[in-house]
Amino acid sequence: MVWGGRRPPAPNRSLPRFAMLSDWSVARAAAIACAVIALFLAAWAISDVLLLAFAAILVAIGLHGLAGAVTRYTGCPPRAALAVVCLLVAGLLGVVAYLFGNIISAQVRELFHRLPAAWETFQDEFHLRGMVDDLMRRAEAAATPSGATVLSAVRGVTSNIANVLVGIFLIVVGGLYFAMQPHFYRRLLISLFPPQHQDAAGRRVDGIGQSLRCFLQAQLIAMIVVGLLCGIGLAVLGVPAALALGLFAGLAEFVPMVGPVMAAIPALLLALTVGMETTFYTLLLFLVVQQVESNIISPLLQQELVSLPAAVTLFSVVAFGTLLGPLGLLLATPLTVLVFALCRPDDNCAI
Fold this sequence. Notes:
The protein is mainly alpha-helical. It contains 12 helices and no strands.
């Protein structure tokens, strides 16, 4: 068929690709976008549950790593090795609580007993007493809490304590469940991917598990070393509650950058009750310990186990703490390790 002796015009091949999409393709793309957004919003709504699950996975990785070591050295089955590890960990915690519980609790009570006096000494040393008292009077005049406000605050504190206890229970029990059947949960996760990508997904999951295992090993060593150095140093300096402060410093080391600062504050306040010279040496002790941890311990551990850039670690702590609250702050470093493991280039991995 011709038009006026000429051939009909050919289809315009220069149209954009999206102009030639069918209505079905557009609807399918819109449905996928809506599903992705819905999944993101659902994950954000249950972010606390997901963080608890991630913490339970960390516990499971630690238990499974210890059970693997027991299996290698004794040859017992994995389930029996896990049971042995759980009994050893529970027994170790029981022995520590029995032998040092009274000492630690007494020093913690002394810590809280001395902190108000330390704060008073701090105000006197830096001539802040009048300023602080004036600010407190203005704050009380601006907002005197009513009975309902006090009752609401008490309920809030009680609810927070209950949430912490429930969270610890879920983390411990969930970690045991994950550690008992790691291969089942691995297969379940990999099955979510298309068949052509499941091998790559398996390699990626194994790489993430190895990265988190190395992180836990490095973090445990750093926490033990920092806690021992701080506790021994504070005891030599004569700072009250040195054992409790060393324990707190070791635990606070799990949160990089922020944890050491938080651990130094009560130690400096208690050192003020002894004298300014002790306070100066206490500050020097924490600076030296952090320099040893940053320049000797961490480089050695990073060379052998896991490596994270310092700037990335710092901003990840701030970012996760801002977005996800206290639990995000506590898990900021392992979450950063997870993100690095997910984004690590792998020529053999398609995801």
